[in-house]
Specification:
Strand 1, helix 1 and strand 2 form a beta-alpha-beta unit. Helix 1 runs parallel beside helix 2, helix 2 runs parallel beside helix 3 and helix 5 packs parallel to helix 6. The chain is α/β, with parallel strands linked by helices. The protein has a single domain, classed as Divalent-metal-dependent TIM barrel enzymes (TIM Barrel, Alpha-Beta Barrel), CATH 3.20.20.150. The protein is globular and about 45 Å long.
Length: about 270
Amino acid sequence: MRVIESGMCSITMRQLATDDVIALAVRAELAGIEWGADGHVPPGETSVAQAVARRCADAGVAVTSYGTYLGIGPFDDPDSPPDELAAALDSAEALGAPLLRVWTAFGIESDAPGVDRARVIETTAAIAQAADARGLGVALEFHPGTLTHTAAGAHSVLAAVDHPALRTHWQPDPALTPAEALDELKLVAGSLAYLHVFVWGSGGIGERYPLADGAELWQPALAIAAEAPPLPGDLPRYGLLEYVADDDPERVVRDAATLNGWISRFHES
């Protein structure tokens, strides 16, 4: 059984300054932070990334990953900067992040035309190859509205790209029952990176609940993750809090206490 560590995505507290996010993680006794590219650590601003890395090291908080939006749109989109991939990789390196979170293109699902799905695979493969060349791993966002909406979809991307640097994060689809969501997690456990941890109602992100309300899902989900194959370099596997009720820092502290209580069982095993 592998050790699971607790953490949070910085976008959970997008409204807070970087130092306040770190202070909150320390107060909540979270082991690490995934830093978001759309706020706290902009792509290409390596001096910012280096400063965040230093502050995390001083506070004893790990940088778990760099949460990018690479892949959410095509690289040939005229609104995308031409050096988007290089900028994200530069910031990931400056952060000392072991892997990047990336997307498959939003709006292209499993029933999309083959040419569109092929372009998503081509983009994902290019990201994985470029990241691997710098010693970085890649984890897919497991998200509705994309090819990685389901375990079957994630497997199709992983198999088509077929690159050892590529894995997938996992998060529950609010439309599924806990049992159905756990079946999805079991199917991707062999390629699992991290968990994005939250409890939403069927209304989605606008209907958020305390993590303790999700025990039926998250206690077995953490056990599945603890049994999953190790990450390269024996990196820790994280359960990252992502979004809390009312965007309230105190909710982070409470949810972190719940998460730490659950994962303490695996540390004791």
